[in-house]
Design a protein that fits this description.
Helices cover 68% and strands 11% of the residues. By secondary structure, it is mostly helical.
């Protein structure tokens, strides 16, 4: 409300752009609160894989809000460039923008910390909203100071265009990330390689891992793969190996859903009778 008041008093399109931006930030925060609460609900009969996609949809919606904000700011910038108005009451506008920078940065730090702890995509997008608010507010503040010193009215529109371009670039990256998650794109290559490293660290009775598939839904990583074990192992022993792998992966990643398909080794295509420690132990010394 203070930004809207400052924009109305000063006739600054730069301050107006920040008022629009901040209004969408508040909308984004409200959407994040709802989506995180819903996404945190346990799986049920209708949603056996949980509610994580709600959080991803929220991230997409919040990112699209930024696109809308950029379009509105750009429109206002063009209008003021074609119909320039003298910017007045700059002292009040400067004070409002300075207070906004401090408050937005404080909210960004808190949201960013919680987002890193929970790996929440909705909170990550929301924290980016406030970071972009800080950066664009600094730009508007600089523009107001320059206007006061030079009376170059076109600076107001130029800073509005700069804010719009910055917000658009941030929002498009977030839209891309949300769409990738909704379409079940695999986890980032760095995480996939980390998973392979953990799985390949297991030796016999884990003989081979293949058909690794990964995706992310909200804050939860879904990992499934096929595990080849000695065909002479009991079900209990195979299950124990799976438990160890699940524990190792769960230590590395905050929230995971792991599905392992166990397969017996193909004895007719291998040298099990010569190399498998489990089979050799069962058969005993061979002459």
């Amino acid at each position: 409300m203070l930004k809207l008041g400052a924009a109305w008093l000063s006739h600054s399109v730069g301050v107006l752009s920040e008022a629009i931006h901040s209004a969408l930030d508040l909308t984004s925060a409200a959407v994040s609160y709802f989506s995180i609460r819903e996404a945190g609900k346990p799986a049920d009969e209708k949603h056996p894989f949980g509610h994580g996609k709600i959080e991803t949809l929220s991230s997409l919606f919040e990112s699209l809000l930024l696109v809308v904000a950029a379009a509105l700011i750009f429109y206002e910038g063009v209008d003021h460039l074609l119909h320039p108005q003298e910017v007045v009451h700059t002292n009040f506008a400067v004070a409002v923008m300075a207070a906004s920078i401090g408050l937005s940065y404080y909210v960004f730090l808190n949201n960013s910390r919680v987002a890193d702890q929970t790996e929440s995509s909705a909170l990550q997008v929301n924290s980016i909203h406030f970071l972009s608010d800080v950066i664009s507010s600094v730009g508007v503040l600089v523009a107001l100071v320059l206007l006061r010193l030079t009376d170059w009215l076109f600076i107001d529109s130029l800073i509005a265009f700069s804010v719009a371009i910055y917000i658009l670039s941030v929002s498009l990256r977030q839209v891309q990330g949300a769409v990738s998650e909704l379409t079940d794109t695999k986890l980032p290559e760095r995480e996939v390689q980390q998973i392979w490293g953990l799985l390949q660290g297991f030796e016999a009775p884990s003989l081979e891992v293949h058909d690794l598939r990964t995706r992310k839904s909200g804050a939860t990583r879904h990992i499934d793969f096929h595990l080849v074990v000695c065909g002479q192992m009991t079900v209990e022993a195979s299950h124990s190996v799976c438990d160890q792998m699940e524990a190792k992966l769960s230590e590395a990643f905050l929230e995971t859903s792991i599905n392992i398909h166990v397969e017996p080794c193909e004895k007719e295509k291998s040298q099990c009778h010569l190399t498998c420690p489990i089979l050799l132990k069962r058969l005993g010394p061979q002459n």
